[in-house]
Amino acid sequence: MVEELLTAAVTVGAAGAAYVIAAARVVKQYERGVVFRLGRLHGTARPPGFTLVVPGVDRLHKVNLQIVTMPIPAQEGITRDNVTVRVDAVVYFKVVDASAAVINVEDYRFAVSQMAQTSLRSIIGKSDLDDLLSNREKLNQGLELMIDSPAVGWGVQIDRVEIKDVSLPDTMKRSMARQAEADRERRARVINADAELQASRKLAEAAQQMSETPSALQLRLLQTIVAVSAEKNSTLVLPFPVELLRFLERAQQPAPDLPTEPRPESDGRAPGP
Predict the structure, then answer these.
(1) Nearest one of 130, 118, 115 to 85, comparing CA atoms
(2) DSSP letter, residue 104
(3) Closest by Cα among 155, 168, 187 to 81
(4) pLDDT tens digits for the chain (273 residues)?
(5) Is 14 helix (H, G, I), strand (E, B) or coil?
(6) How many angstroms separate the Cα of 201 from the Cα of each of 196, 205, 213?
C-alpha cells in the first residue's frame, strides 16, 4: 500500500513538474507577453518575469518594446520645382501597446517601413530643392507626423525621423556650383567697391589736411621714399619740382656782358666851374 502511494505521489509530482515546465514562460525586461487563449486575447499583456500559460490552450507572443532603428531605402522623386532627387532617411520607433501591435497589424515593422517610404515620396513632391538641402528640420517634423498618424492605431510610436542624404544629378551639382561661384564673385566685387569708396574718402580727407600744411606733403614724400628704399630690388624714382629744375638751368648759363658807355674825350680845357 505504501509503495502504491509512493508511486502515485511520484507520478503526480512528475506530471506536475512536466506541466510546470510546459507552462512556464520567461518574459524579458524589454518585452511584453500577449496571450491568446483558444485564439482570443486573454487579459492584458504579461509583464516581464516568470509567467505561466495553459499548455496546448494558450499561445504567448512576445513583443519587443525597444526602440527600433529602421533605414528607409532611397526614394527617387521630383521636387515641386521640377528637380529629380534621391532621398534616403532613417526612422526611430517603438511599440507602446503590445496587444495592438499584434492584433491590429500583421507585421508592424513592415507596415512602418512601407508607410515611411510612401511618406518620404510625398514629402519630396511637396518640397522645393532648397528646403531639402537647408530646411531639413521642418521636413523631418512633417515626415514624422505623416508616419505617426496611422502608426498610433498599430500601437507604435514614432520617436524621430531624420533625412540622411539628398542625391542630386551631376548637371544640377554643376549648376549649383556655378551659381555659388557667381554669388561669391558678386560679393567680392561689392566688398572691393566698398573698400575703394572708403579709401577714396580717407584720401580726400588726407589731401585736404595736407593742403592746409604744405610741409606735410614734403614729409609724406620723404616717408614714401624711405618705405620704397627698404626694398633692395626696387628702383627709386625721385620727382623734382619743375621750378627747381628751371632754377638749376638758369644757374648754369653764363651771365651776358653788359654794354659800357663811351667816355667823353678831353679838349684840353679845364672844366668849367
Answers:
(1) 130
(2) T
(3) 168
(4) 667 777 777 777 777 777 777 788 888 999 999 999 888 888 888 899 988 888 888 889 999 999 999 999 988 888 888 888 899 999 999 999 999 999 999 889 999 999 999 999 988 888 888 888 888 888 888 888 888 888 888 999 999 999 888 888 888 778 888 888 898 899 999 999 999 999 988 888 887 877 777 677 677 777 777 776 776 666 666 666 666 566 667 766 665 555 555 555 545 454 444
(5) helix
(6) 9, 6, 19
